[in-house]
Amino acid sequence: MDLTPQDALIVVDVQVDFCPGGALAVSNGQAVVPVLNRWLTPFAAAGRPIFASRDWHPSRHISFREQGGPWPPHCIQHTPGAAFHPDLALPEGTIIISKGTDPNRDAYSAFDSPDLATHLQRFHIRRVTVGGLALDYCVRATLLDALKLGFATRLLRGATRPVEVHPGDGERALAEMRAAGAERVEEEP
User: pTM above 0.85?
Assistant: First the structure.
């Protein structure tokens, strides 16, 4: 693996509610966990920063159907569904980025929390590697925002799955990210 001092890993929303049995389950979402765990190990061993974003919604969030949004209630603060997947091996020192905390504002990108950009600047990061859930929403938004902010980006294709609200959403998201300049990484470390 070609890690440099300017690399960071961003794990996007690998939470119980986005995995099978959760309130907003992504088909086969739990399959990202072992792939991400294999990437977490070398990043941690190299002392590179690891960020884990999470939806951290208040109970009456604008994205919920009851409030006029498109989604069922999910990842409500301090509930079991908002927890990271129990098999995700986030190392000590992982920086948690909470998003979607404003009840009146939706947030897909991990960069919707200003904390992420601030941390990346503090660590002098130039390239981010991104995986998690879901490919066609939060992963897509995070990766595109990283590119807009000038970061080189790598998408861990095996470490993400789409929601597929509409058939083909995942492939369209991949095409959009590639067109924007993302590098797609298929192999595992």
Answer: yes
**Contact call for residues 49 and 8 (beta carbons, < 8 A):** yes
Of residues 19, 55, 99, 112, which has the active-site annotation? 99
Going residue by residue through the chain (189 aa), what tens digit of pLDDT does each one get?
Answer: 689 999 999 999 999 999 999 999 999 999 999 999 999 999 999 999 999 999 999 999 999 999 999 999 999 999 999 999 999 999 999 999 999 999 999 999 999 998 999 999 999 999 999 999 999 999 999 999 999 999 999 999 999 999 999 999 999 999 999 999 999 898 666
Helix or strand or coil: residue 137?
helix
Round to whole Å and give the CA distance between 29 and 161: 6
Q: What domains are defined for the chain?
A: 7-185 (3.40.50.850)
Active site residue 75: no
The catalytic position among 55, 75, 136, 138 is 138
